[in-house]
Known about the structure:
The complex is a heterodimer. Chain A is 0% helix and 49% strand. By secondary structure, chain A is an all-beta fold. Chain B is an all-beta fold. Helix content of chain B is 0%, strand content 57%. In chain B, the strands form two sheets. In chain B, strands 2, 4, 5, 9, 10 and 11 form a six-stranded mixed sheet that branches.
Amino acid sequence: NAGVTQTPKFRILKIGQSMTLQCTQDMNHNYMYWYRQDPGMGLKLIYYSVGAGITDKGEVPNGYNVSRSTTEDFPLRLELAAPSQTSVYFCASSYGLAGPYEQYFGPGTRLTVT
Amino acid sequence: GQQVMQIPQYQHVQEGEDFTTYCNSSTTLSNIQWYKQRPGGHPVFLIQLVKSGEVKKQKRLTFQFGEAKKNSSLHITATQTTDVGTYFCAGRDGGSQGNLIFGKGTKLSVKP
């Protein structure tokens, strides 16, 4: 199993551009998450999904959108990129939401907006 | 809302010294998880604690969940250079089906 995969690994965007960060998991997990990690900070939840067709906002959703058309894929869309969105983005998945379910993280996408 | 605080933010140790990071929550937690992130890497799950007062060990790592389920600690005995990285705790509010809330992490550096 590849686990959680993310593309691209690195990206530089100009202010105002848009892009989609891809995330795929092959563990048949229902729950998927997008986090951002700023230097010296923990992980902040952007959006999460409890299954295909169902998404919900996390702590910092502004400037982002998501969709979940399949169990495997959970893309994150950035519209009108801003310097404040410079960060490392991690996608994660888990078997369950509540209870002691560990999260499996992808390798991350390092995004710079200039 | 729920907050998870972690101290210290940074810890520099000589190889062979012990290391401890502490995690405190503003609310009672249903469970707490610990993750390790190597430099340039992604968080990797280490362990989860569920019961009040629970202590679990993984080789040189000892994890503890407080009696009130509001705090936790990770202790590494005789650190090695392979222990370098950032250690995060993540807790879930005991009264909700909510998401994990991550602490800001403790960055450990080990001098050989």
